[in-house]
Write a structure and sequence with these properties.
This protein has 285 residues and is an alpha+beta fold. The protein has eleven helices and nine strands. Strand 4 and strand 5 form a beta hairpin.
Length: 285
Amino acid sequence: METEGFPSVIINTQIKQTYRADVTGPVSLFLNLRGSSKCSVEGRKVTVPPDHYFISNRFQSYTLEIESAQPVETFNIHLGEAFSEGVFSALLTPADVILNDGLQQKAVTLAFHNQLYRKDEAFHRIVYEIKKSQTPAYFDKLLFEEKMTSLVVYLLQQHRDLLKRIAQMPAVKASTRLELYKRLSHSLDWLHAQDGSYIDLDALASTACLSKYHFLRLFKQTYGLSPYQYWQNLRLEKAEKLLRTTDLAIREIADFLGFDNAASFSRLFRQRRRLYPSQFREVAN
């Protein structure tokens, strides 16, 4: 360790069961390359699926749980305290102030929203490059820190985009907008954790502690889709993954995702993807 405080650590392992309770760490990203885990922060438990990641902040206690019949491959990233503060300082401090301060940097911390974040192509690329910088025989510190810096830059941009979305919410007070966004994000996290079962609007709205009519309006204003449209898109994304990565029959995928039958699933898939599921599988493979 070159500095005081928590160092940058990546936990990339395969495990079927673990329980790490009330751990206070640095800014941490919980993600899985295969399988799902559960993460709890401030009394809120979230299922972390393979296509999302979850963030906890410095000084927050988290609990990590894994219980699976098949091994779950984690790739949890803990940003070193001195490292994250230094990168945030470099990104958020004006150039003239940096020149005046010289080597003396002011510590800058940033609190991210505790929620699920979708892994986009840029995130996948950064994680791949971070993983590639490490081998059993050699650790390339320069490459590792460069790629970790790229990750922090990415997170900062995502945070700025999220703040813009919150600012556009229909409320006068900033504190009210923030609270509404937190409630909606709870409902979104809950939605992503569901299997193919039917989603009830009352149950979904209750996760946000809002009436279903207020919930409907705010959800569409915030995410640009109705809850039903968002759920349909989510099911189709899961269908694409199952078609690419498994040999499940079309009717089995339809049943798993909660469609009435294979015909209704195939019809919707054709409408949205311009290919029938069987055709998509042929092209994808």
